[in-house]
UniProtKB/TrEMBL annotation:
<feature type="binding site">
    <location>
        <position position="87"/>
    </location>
    <ligand>
        <name>substrate</name>
    </ligand>
</feature>
<feature type="binding site">
    <location>
        <position position="74"/>
    </location>
    <ligand>
        <name>substrate</name>
    </ligand>
</feature>
<feature type="binding site">
    <location>
        <begin position="101"/>
        <end position="102"/>
    </location>
    <ligand>
        <name>substrate</name>
    </ligand>
</feature>
<dbReference type="Pfam" id="PF01220">
    <property type="entry name" value="DHquinase_II"/>
</dbReference>
<feature type="site" description="Transition state stabilizer">
    <location>
        <position position="18"/>
    </location>
</feature>
<comment type="function">
    <text>Catalyzes a trans-dehydration via an enolate intermediate.</text>
</comment>
<comment type="subunit">
    <text>Homododecamer.</text>
</comment>
<feature type="active site" description="Proton donor">
    <location>
        <position position="100"/>
    </location>
</feature>
<keyword id="KW-0456">Lyase</keyword>
<keyword id="KW-0028">Amino-acid biosynthesis</keyword>
<dbReference type="InterPro" id="IPR036441">
    <property type="entry name" value="DHquinase_II_sf"/>
</dbReference>
<feature type="active site" description="Proton acceptor">
    <location>
        <position position="23"/>
    </location>
</feature>
<protein>
    <recommendedName>
        <fullName>3-dehydroquinate dehydratase</fullName>
        <ecNumber>4.2.1.10</ecNumber>
    </recommendedName>
</protein>
<dbReference type="InterPro" id="IPR001874">
    <property type="entry name" value="DHquinase_II"/>
</dbReference>
<dbReference type="GO" id="GO:0009423">
    <property type="term" value="P:chorismate biosynthetic process"/>
</dbReference>
<feature type="binding site">
    <location>
        <position position="111"/>
    </location>
    <ligand>
        <name>substrate</name>
    </ligand>
</feature>
<comment type="pathway">
    <text>Metabolic intermediate biosynthesis; chorismate biosynthesis; chorismate from D-erythrose 4-phosphate and phosphoenolpyruvate: step 3/7.</text>
</comment>
C-alpha cells in the first residue's frame, strides 16, 4: 500500500490546548485522521509521527525515505534552526510539503525564514488544520495517479 509520511515537530503534540487562538483546537490525532481521509480514496495510508526532538524527526525521515510516496512536514520552530532535519529532508527522495498552522509572516519577525522551505515541493501557511488537507491534495497531484511514478 502507498504511504504518506506525516511529521509534526516540537510542541505540536499539545495542539488543541496550546494557544488555540493561534493554532486552533484540532489535535495531532485529528489532523492525522483528516490527512488519512484525504488520501484514502487514492488507496493511500498515513504514518503519523510527532516528536519534540529533532533527532527523532531525522530518524523518522531516514526510516521512511524508501517506503513513503511523499511527506507532509510541520517542523514547528525547527523551520528556523533545524539544520539536521533540513539535511535529512534534502536526502528524502520523494516530494514533500512544509505546513504551518499559522501565517508565520504575520507573526514575529524571527518566524519569517524557513531553512527547510527552499527544499520543499511547496509550502502551506496560515490555513490552520485545513492546510494539512491541502498539502495531502498537493501530494496526490504531484505523485499522480500511478504511485510508483514520483514527479
Amino acid at each position: 500500500m502507498t504511504t504518506v509520511l506525516l511529521l509534526n515537530g516540537p510542541n505540536l503534540g499539545i495542539l488543541g490546548d496550546r494557544e488555540p487562538e493561534i493554532y486552533g483546537y484540532d489535535t495531532v490525532d485529528d489532523i492525522a485522521k483528516s490527512v488519512a481521509d484525504e488520501v484514502a480514496e487514492a488507496g493511500w495510508q498515513v504514518v503519523a509521527i510527532q516528536d519534540d526532538h529533532e533527532g527523532g524527526l531525522v530518524q523518522a525521515v531516514h526510516a521512511h525515505r524508501r517506503s513513503t510516496i511523499g511527506a507532509i512536514v510541520n517542523p514547528g520552530a525547527l523551520m528556523m534552526a533545524g539544520w539536521s532535519l533540513r539535511d535529512a529532508l534534502a536526502a528524502y527522495p520523494a516530494p514533500w510539503i512544509e505546513v504551518h498552522l499559522s501565517n508565520v509572516w504575520a507573526r514575529e519577525r524571527f518566524r519569517h525564514e524557513s531553512v527547510l522551505a527552499p527544499l520543499a515541493s511547496g509550502v502551506v501557511v496560515g490555513l490552520g488544520a485545513f492546510g494539512y488537507r491541502l498539502a495531502a491534495r498537493a501530494l496526490l497531484e504531484l505523485c499522480g495517479p500511478d504511485p510508483t511514478h514520483q514527479s
